[in-house]
Amino acid sequence: MMELCEDTGNIYETVAIIGKRANQISVEMKNDLSKKLQEFASYNDNLEEVFENREQIEISRYYEKLPKPTLIAAQEYEEGKVYFRNPAKEKEKLQ
C-alpha cells in the first residue's frame, strides 16, 4: 500500500489520480461499447415486439468480462504509465 504513494507522498492524492484515470478508461470503454452496439441496432417502431439480438448480447457479455476500469488504472499507475502533475506543488516550488 505504501508503495503506491511513493510518487506522490500522499495516499489520498494517489487514490484521486487512479480514480481520475479510471473515469477516463470508463468513458473510453463506454464509447467503444456504444459504437459497437449501434452497428447492430435495429430501428423498429413496434414497441410490442422485443427482438433479441445475439450480436448485441455477445458484445455486452464481452465487455462485462473485461477488467474493471479501476483495476486497469491501478495497474497502469503501478507500471508508471500514468502521467500526472500537481499544479499546487509546482507553484510551491516556484516560490
Task: Kindly describe this structure.
The chain has one domain. By secondary structure, it is mainly α. Helices cover 62% and strands 0% of the residues.
Reading the helices and strands in chain order gives HHHH
| Low confidence ranges | none
Sheet with the most strands? none
First CA to last CA: what distance? 32 Å
Structural class: mainly alpha
Query: Helix fraction?
Result: 55-70%
What is the gist of this entry?
The chain contains four helices and no strands. The protein is an all-alpha fold. The protein has one domain (11-94).
Map the helices and strands.
Blueprint: H1 11-39, H2 54-65, H3 69-78, H4 87-94
List keywords for this structure.
95 residues, mainly alpha, transferase, RNA polymerase Rpb6, Pol_omega/Rpo6/RPB6, DNA-directed RNA polymerase, DNA-directed RNA polymerase activity
